[in-house]
Amino acid sequence: MTLASILIYPIKALDPVRMQSARITAGGILEFDRVWALRGLDGKFICGKSTEAIHKVRARFMLPGNFVTLSWGSETEEFTFRLGDEDDAIAGWLERRLGQPVRFDADPVRGFPDDTEAFGPTVVSEATLDAVASWFPGISRDEMIRRFRPNLIVAGVPAFWEDRLYTATGSISFRIGDVVLSGQNPCARCVVPTREPLSGDALPQFMKTFIERRERTLPPWAAKARFDHYYRLSVNTTIGSDEAGKAVRVGDAVAIM
Q1: Residue 233, exposed/middle/buried by CB under 10 A (0-12, 13-18, 19+)?
Q2: How far does CA 85 lie from the centroid of its chain?
Q3: Structure confidence by residue, pLDDT tens digits, 7-54
Q4: In angstroms, rounded to a whole number, what is the distance separating the alpha carbons of residues 167 and 90?
Q5: Can you name the residues that pair with 5 across neighbouring β-strands?
Q6: Which sequence spans correspond to the domains of the chain?
Q7: Which residues, at least 6 apart from 241, have a Cβ–Cβ distance to it below 8 Å?
Q8: Spatial contact of 122 and 236, defined as CB atoms under 8 Å apart
Q9: What does each C-alpha distance from 110 to 90, 117, 167, 191, 237 come to in angstroms?
């Protein structure tokens, strides 16, 4: 079992960056992962759950220089900004495209995770992504990654291996290289995976098909008590404060403790 891929999402809801390594922050997240976020005037996150047009924003990052290059849909014109120094300019660019006020927030230590209790990186296996992709003709593993937006992808394990990383009532510790993580629960999904990642176009029956297949293929090692519904994929984790400063790296061995 090895760590095959690391993906971080510097601006919550926007495009990922593939990394060869990622340091653990004092807040228990992967460095740079969802450390910037867009909010509306009501303080709520602007993301795919609430703002379908966010799918049209393309973002390329240069880290650790903290540069982001933004473009809109199929337009070829690009605009480059420095995160932290030009946040107001980034917010203004997004306001004009999204047609709503945007506030740009940053938290480099804790970030803005979807799950505020199990706030560590999400984990899934390559085999799981391939299995789920097989349920939807024409969708590749790479597209499934963009739909479900995982952080850590493990190779050398069977489909739904990550469902071994929690119990009916608690967590299970596992190690990636030198870093100890705790699997907490199967991640509940939102409307975002039902949409084509670049256009935002919804795939009819995606959720219904997923739920039916997920229930049918739930492995015997999965704790069914954690499935109040079957629209769940990947595993939420936590990372203890004593792991801060360590790093996970592509190629690291993965082992359940």
Answers
A1: buried
A2: 25
A3: 999 999 999 999 999 999 999 999 999 999 999 999 999 999 989 999
A4: 43
A5: 153
A6: 2-9+114-256, 36-106
A7: 26, 28
A8: yes
A9: 21, 12, 26, 25, 14
